[in-house]
Amino acid sequence: xxxxxxxxxxxxxxxxxxxxxxxxxxxxxxxxxxxxxxxxxxxxxxxxxxxxxxxxxxxxxxxxxxxxxxxxxxxxxxxxxxxxxxxxxxxxxxxxxxxxxxxxxxxxxxxxxxxxxxxxxxxxxxxxxxxxxxxxxxxxxxxxxxxxxxxxxxxxxxxxxxxxxxxxxxxxxxxxxxxxxxxxxxxxxxxxx
Amino acid sequence: xxxxxxxxxxxxxxxxxxxxxxxxxxxxxxxxxxxxxxxxxxxxxxxxxxxxxxxxxxxxxxxxxxxxxxxxxxxxxxxxxxxxxxxxxxxxxxxxxxxxxxxxxxxxxxxxxxxxxxxxxxxxxxxxxxxxxxxxxxxxxxxxxxxxxxxxxxxxxxxxxxxxxxxxxxxxxxxxxxxxxxxxxxxxxxxxx
DNA sequence: CGTGCAGTTGAGCAAATTCAACGCTTGTGG
DNA sequence: CCACAAGCGTTGAATTTGCTCAACTGCACG
Lengths: 193, 193
Description:
CATH topology of the largest domain in chain A: Jelly Rolls
CATH architecture of the largest domain in chain A: Sandwich
Mean pLDDT of chain A: 96
Largest interface: A-B, 38 and 38 residues
Oligomer: homodimer
Number of strands of chain A: 11
């Protein structure tokens, strides 16, 4: 169960306002969910790495869009089938609830992140990504500076400046612009206070 | 079912880190959930008006605390009983899921709010409160400027200045500091763009 | 080679914060 | 009953932070 589907980089998986017909599991690549603001800016709500589920929503209309950050493969599930299953099967209902509650927690963490200074946001972001990535200390960011900036509510310039500053402070290394090596986790944790 | 309990203004209903044993329904008064940040600042995650449910959480440990903003009465429910009920009864499970998904939506809206300018945040906040209050155009804010500021991620000074500016622009009236009358909803909506 | 895109860096600017003072209301004690 | 302190809200001036605009680099791709 779950039909595989492929998307090229920057392809839209679903758009804001479309009917909520499916949910998805990332097999390969990375997905972002985001929303265009009226002033043309964009807010990225979440990133989804392989293994993670996205697209669960209460309303029948998408309030965010989902796009492939890199070429990606996802499994597609029928939303109505899930809801029916949850109605009959207590365990399935529990899974669905846990999933939603988990996303709620992530949203709340994201909320706290947006309350902080630029340095704290970037440091917290790096720690979050490191937590979710296989190798604990080296991160290969799948997303562009623009994606990072829109997730953190900053400009790409501020993200870039902050990263170089963290490198100067010997907290991280930047072998390439997409690769980050955490040199001093403790000081990052401190900066993301 | 549901045991009534009273709290005086500023009393703690539950604290960060405590075991998640109950959920609550507001009968009377207003409740805030919030978190203390390491730098001493505080982030208010949500306000809960009469009729609304709060305290639903995935983890066994509270990640936020809940406090009475005004003298308040709440109904207390056993969390374990709710989870058991949801396991057996598909409808109850659905209600629990809808509740959680609803809070997720609110968190996402809050997230978007924090991406905006001070004026947009205050305008959006007023519209949100007006939506949730009985009388559509006159709002009696139950919370202090500090609460509003910590909810919007601003300082009390900025909130205060922004309100007086909205009053000067004829978008609102401020008969008293806690009472706001929406004079021009359209322009508020525009400002909260 | 040139073109275009992603990322970095710099200078000036705008927005919100910090710090400080002040007014108003409320509650307390002389 | 008045004096005074405390809490809340507002206002002003100076400062800081992050943004805007612009130039520049490195790299991939035709």
